[in-house]
Amino acid sequence: MSQAAPAPAAPLPVLSERHLDPHAYPNGVAYLDGQYLPMSQAKVSVLDWGFLHSDATYDTVHVWDGRFFRLDLHLDRFFGGLEKLRMIIPFDRDGVAEILHNCVALSGHRAAYVEMLCTRGASPTFSRDPRQAINRFMAFAVPFGSVANAEQLRSGLHVAISDKVRIPPASIDPSIKNYHWLDLVRGLYDAYDRGADTALVLDFNGNLAEGPGFNVFCVRAGKLTTPAVGVLPGITRRTVFDLCAEAGLPAVAADVSVAALKSADEVFITSTAGGIMPVTMIDGAPVADGKVGAITERLMRLYWQKHEDPAWSSAVRYG
User: Which of 167, 190, 165, 186 has its CA nearest to residue 177?
Assistant: First the structure.
């Protein structure tokens, strides 16, 4: 029995001279390789270790009413992460601050989410030795975004507690802001499946850790507590401690059990993306009376007032 003749080989596809990007991007400005570009033109190589291995560190600061909020603290954390990851960029703190100012000013945004980041980069020879990679610094400014929308800021978020465990600090130093988010993303899907707005995950001891891009606080009998172990020491978290010190409110970092959170008088989360945001429902049950608490409201008000204080904020130079 004779075999059928093989089908003729299809011609090779055409090799494009450049990439045509069909995706949409927020309006903003990025800095990359010495150039200021529209967000749609800022690209990273598929060989970059930041993409292939999540080998990167970053920090985000926000601009509100034309002013950076606590930029010095964000720069402290970013440069601390660079040092711990043995990354080198060709800019000092003032140089990075100038780039961030330029991204915001060129974008024209008066309220912006501003990110500085450094990836391990790529090796010119595709070496697997991270020491041979050329580290790559980038930055961008896009419109301000919040974990909570306007209605959630008014009436409170519904948070679900996932059984997913945050990467332990013995594996990844949580003080290095990073893109290792698969545990957090799995937690988010747990929350969505249960009809909640966002999620909290656990630490390696079964206590509360943090959520996707935010820390959590609970209030009981006028005392504030936030998880101490295995969490990013957020700048907004730090700001809450500073506000409490000024307002005479006791605040500590300590273990927070799931039971303690659910039985708290008040709960709120903190993030550069939104500030201090109330939580009024956990796992489908109301926190206390289900309304935003008085201490949460007070801290929210003080937080936004501080955005006008020159000791806490700095004006963008729009030119």
Answer: 167
Question: What pLDDT does 7 receive?
Answer: 75
* Residues whose CB falls within 8 Å of the CB of residue 70, separated by 6 or more in sequence, listed in order: 61, 235, 239, 312, 313
Concatenated DSSP letters for 32-88?
ETTEEEEGGG----TT-HHHHH--EEEEEEEEETTEEESHHHHHHHHHHHHHHTT--
Residue 4 pLDDT exceeds 90: no
Q: How far apart are CA 310 and CA 99, in angstroms?
A: 20
End-to-end CA, the chain? 82
Token match 């049950």: residue?
Answer: 285
Under a CB-based contact definition with an 8 Å cutoff, are residues 272 and 215 in contact? Answer: no
Any idea how long the chain is?
319
Among the listed residues 24, 7, 130, 111, the one whose alpha carbon sits nearest the alpha carbon of residue 63: 111
What predicted TM-score, i.e. pTM, was given to this entire model? 0.94
Average pLDDT, the chain: 96
Give the pLDDT score at 256. 98
